[in-house]
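Q: Convert this sequence to structure tokens.
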Amino acid sequence: MKEAIDVLVERLDGLAPTTALVLGSGLGGLVEEVENAVRVPYADLPGFPRSGVTGHAGEIVAGLFAGQPVIMLAGRAHYYEHGDASAMRPALETLAGIGITRLVLTNAAGSVDTEMLPGSIMLIEDHINFAGTNPLFGEPTDRRFVGMTEAYDARLRKAFEAAAGQAGIDLHKGVYMWFSGPSFETPAEIRMARILGANAVGMSTVPEAIIARFLGLKVLACSVVTNLAAGMTGLELSHSDTKDMAPIGGARLAAVLREMFEKDMFDA
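A:
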């Protein structure tokens, strides 16, 4: 990823953030809060993904967010787009190569818990990989045997909880279950997910968390709940529902992130 690293370092012109955010559905507007923003289209960075999902812009936005240097990835590649679970690996390797040490992952998710309604936010404490694949397939070294006991950093989770409290935002915590998509889950699959211990389901984040841990990055991840999962309301699910509801929870998640950055709580 040397070429992508060189391009990004040149464009950043001395800015040296250590935290990066991957913005899921509902959080794209957060880039408008970045001061002195430098925008780099993914197309300018060799190896970066081309997302075909509406609501994912496909660019890096770097600058100051709540007074702290940051890189935001507006858009991600999903496994269901290309059948490649490692599609985000070049992007994350590039971030690691320019000095990023912490990765904040966000997503839109369906709730399996009747107490966690649309518009809620959930701090991901752990995940279940139900997609039947892994982004480290084909990695030739023994580094592929990545420990995932603490996939989501305990200190970052504690800081996020504190920030939510200070921002006055109700916070749920739980387990995120990765389905491959792009079709939504069936009611039977949701009943299974609940039995297996999932609190939310979605089609992203897990491969990025695995890659990030492979690269030695600390990971924090959060879900914006956009719907109750299949079979819980009797209504059919659609991506338009996700796009409609994501900004509501996205505003709450943005408030927590703003609190974390403004008070520099990442090393608390």
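The mean pLDDT is 93.
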